[in-house]
Amino acid sequence: MPASPGLPGLSGRTVAARIAVIGGGPGGLYAAALLKRLRPEREVSVWERGEPRTTFGFGVVFSDETLGGIEHADPEVYRELSAEFVRWDTIDVVRGGRVLTSGGHGFAALGRQRLLEILHRRCRALGVRLHPRTPAPPAAALARDHDLVIAADGVRSTTRAAHADVFAPHITPHRCRYIWLAADFALDAFRFEIAETEHGVLQLHGYPYARPRTGAAPGGDGGDGGPATGASTIIVEAREEVWRAAGLDRCDEADSARACAGLFADALGGRPLRGNASRWTAFRTVTNERWSHGPVVLLGDAAHTAHFSIGSGTKLAIEDALALAACLEEHPTVARALAAYEAERRPVVASTQRAARASLGWFEDLAHYLRQPPRQFAFNLLTRSRRVTHENLRLRDAGFVAAVEREAGLPPRTPPMFAPLRLRGLTLRNRVVVSPMDMYSAEDGTPGDFHVAHLGARALGGAGLVMTEMVCVSPTGRITPGCPGLYAAEHEAAWRRITGFAHAASPGVAVGVQLGHSGRKGSTRLMWEGIDDPLPSGNWPLVAASPLPYRPGVSQVPRELDAAGLAEIREQFVSAARSAARAGFDLLELHCAHGYLLSGFLSPLTNRRTDGYGGDLAGRLRYPLEVFDAVRAVWPADAPMTVRISATDWAAGGTTADDAVAIAAAFAAHGADAIDVSTGQVVAHEEPEAGRSYQTPFADRIRNELGVPVIAVGAISSWDDVNSLLLAGRADLCALARPHLYDPHWTLHAAAEQGYEGPGAPWPAPYRAGSRKPPAGRADEPRPRLTLHTAGPGAPRGRPR
Fold this sequence. Notes:
The chain is an alpha/beta fold.
């Protein structure tokens, strides 16, 4: 990428001898102090346009991990910080006047102004040149006579804006407004409190950052260090529409402080709140495609932001400073150091930002969870970011988790994943689903020995429900020549062999069939020969909602279905459903996701029809609902039906999360027993936000907004994640694909690892001898005692009791 005008490159810069820091916040100051401490001969200068004590907000929270890094890098700074820290380990969740407390969390906080004072003192002692109340020269100007320019100039970074062509920032605003305030007393715990008002829901995030000072005069210094009575950060947050309806958009700082103190009078004990140039703002997530440009590097909020509900931007900035200083020591040139810094920090920040997005999204949709029982609500809140899990929270506070499980009606010593679930006349023995996975191993649509072994192994492995891959309703509805079908008598007989084996070998397992039609994504090679690539020969004609190829210029252009074609395919689904019932399947899923035929009707990116099957969402839903109704009419009345949907297309102009709720509601109204909530694969130009459990928020919203059972999918890989999602009420079932390819007995092994033996995970009789994890080797053997322990002269010599 070409350099911005006027900004020199890095050629010849082998040592960062002269360093300029733009921004005198904690990240910039700490970077300056570290770099000067590591090499006292360096010339390090910091520019800060405001007053030295000027800061936004009040307190800052650090994790033990970050504190350990500070202690190792600069023990003197750590000692000063430690003297100021307020430490606590409990979280209070307050709703409707009821307080539920969870312990074992471990927090440390101090005032932002105290933090700045400590860092200023350290910088001055080390010889860093500080330029308070002085706007920094432009980064391009500083780069001409400095070896390194650190842009730590915050979320509204002028440096980032000046070189946006290179840094390529992306700034995403969110749906809540929030304000930072303070209370002149120390809360006992990290406090989340919910206020349900006539205008909607508001929430308080509060934590102590200054201890009461024994013997100090009442009133104290009133600054960020806190008065004699101690001090707490109070953040009040509400969705934009609630904020406006409550009239808070018309409040100045003083009015906002009074209004918030009134809303949360119980939490504050009737005491007032104060501001610090406080104003209501909408949080913005900042990302950048690049973090450095020549000798200029972004640090802290200039490079990235993470929502305050999972921690502090200050924490990330401090960690950035530690990594940058280390990389400059470890690499021979500035260029290599900056590349290493970005490579090291980018995945850490991306993980934090994924957790932050999950957390802020939870608070944006908080109103959806108000129907949950109190303890489940509290558990849901504590695990909202997916960083705190069921097992992690159990280790921190076993009593709290046990109380949540009792409230949920779980039998003693039964992990949530092993609770049964009833859908119509079918009772699943546990909440684990083997997700549909295309195997591309059928012959002319007929599943063979491979499928008996593949699906039979997963049935023996303990899952409650084992799903087939997409089973196609016609030869031209296949994705590839290796896809199975249910359109011939030999297919039905082959599937009956598979379901019969599964039911006999693993009594209690349910086997589900997923029926679908490939639509415009058909007539392609086997996955390992070239995914989504057309067949080199023997192609069959494709049909779709509209004549749009999946990959323009590569994929075949499908024919738009007319009335006769729609009726023909609907009857193919009906015939396949009848055949599935005779083949012994326990559950039927209609595939309306991933860009296949029925999904193609639902998305505005793939449905451009102008008749009654296109246009608005009601029109786009018409054909998939017609197919669902026709299948439901012939599928056994006591057997459940589910529908898999793509809850977002991950592409501009496509299906949105709001659309997904409406789609789920429509299928539920027509008799769907659960919605299987996947995402994407509808258009080739999608940009998914992948990560651990990244699709589960869509299922969560549908379940808690509509009250409809959901199956959550998408990078769920551990039994701990499954337990967390289920107990928090974000899903009813969890479908896992790759973990079941890695370990067909994933569910049974999850039971063994949790010490569970019960009806939710019965071991097949021939496998019971393997229900205990075998020893790994000599390391598991008892070790000899090689030292003699005594209690002093004359004590017995031998092994202590």
